[in-house]
Amino acid sequence: MEQIEIGSGDARWSLKGMSALVTGGTRGIGHAIIEEFARFGAVIYTCSRNQKELDECLEEWKRMGFRVAGSVCDLSVRAQRDKLMETVAWLFQWENQYPGE
Ligand SMILES: NC(=O)c1ccc[n+]([C@@H]2O[C@H](COP(=O)([O-])OP(=O)(O)OC[C@H]3O[C@@H](n4cnc5c(N)ncnc54)[C@H](OP(=O)(O)O)[C@@H]3O)[C@@H](O)[C@H]2O)c1
């Protein structure tokens, strides 16, 4: 039986041209999902409540060549969730129209 390796660099798997919103991306599961999606070529938007940690992560991902943007958002606050969705809808629409810019 063929063993399928799921991980970075496997040309059979690609998320190029795809956009993903991954909430809670500065630690734990969200952080791991972002790096895996980014390795497969996805453009990602993320959030967390801590600006400093978020900025550090965004800087590190930029250094790694990943296309990840993000902003502070407390998902337990409805107004902040609504604002996040507006931002993401706008950005992903832009990404679909002008990929890579
Ligand atoms: N770890 C496991 O083995 C496991 C297993 C099953 C299920 N889960 C569930 O999966 C989720 C993530 O687990 P994890 O271990 O990866 O958690 P974690 O290490 O605590 O990371 C959570 C991430 O979410 C952000 N976050 C937390 N509350 C937030 C809020 N109100 N608004 C926006 N961002 C928020 C955190 O940043 P800030 O604190 O800076 O906002 C951080 O980036 C949790 O719901 C957990 O219960 C985890």
From TrEMBL:
It comes from the Eukaryota. Keywords: NADP, Oxidoreductase. The keyword NADP applies. InterPro entries: NAD(P)-bd_dom_sf, SDR_fam, TR. It holds the Pfam family adh_short. GO terms for molecular function: oxidoreductase activity. This is Tropinone reductase-like protein. It comes from Abeliophyllum distichum.
